[in-house]
Recover the amino acids of this structure.
């Protein structure tokens, strides 16, 4: 695994480890108040980033250019903001970071969708 795929998998592994430690902490304290934030970290961090890593490994040409780097950057920033933002929202502190992180999550997925369609279109033209 190289390039963009490596960085997405590294992000996935770090997210999984943080999510696991967070889950253990919630279990040990019997306080699951922040479970939705923990769940978003696991789903968007571990699962989505793993899927992205495998896609960029299987379709290496999809990882070329500026758009895939933008995808990685948006994902990194989103994962840095969204779980904490959801936590703050649950604790009635502020919803600003949760909203910003959510918008970044949608933008990152839209960018990936464009990358996917662009690389799928290129493949179908080659296979025709």
């Amino acid at each position: 695994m190289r390039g963009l795929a490596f960085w997405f998998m590294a992000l996935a592994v770090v997210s999984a480890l943080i999510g696991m430690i967070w889950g253990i902490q919630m279990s040990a304290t019997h306080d699951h108040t922040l479970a939705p934030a923990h769940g978003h970290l696991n789903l968007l961090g571990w699962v989505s980033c793993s899927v992205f890593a495998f896609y960029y490994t299987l379709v290496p040409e999809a990882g070329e250019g500026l758009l895939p780097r933008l995808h990685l950057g948006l994902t990194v920033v989103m994962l840095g903001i969204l779980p904490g933002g959801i936590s703050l929202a649950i604790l009635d502190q502020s919803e600003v970071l949760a909203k910003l992180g959510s918008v970044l999550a949608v933008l990152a997925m839209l960018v990936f969708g464009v990358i996917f369609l662009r690389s799928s279109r290129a493949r179908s033209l080659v296979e025709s």
The radius of gyration is 16 Å.
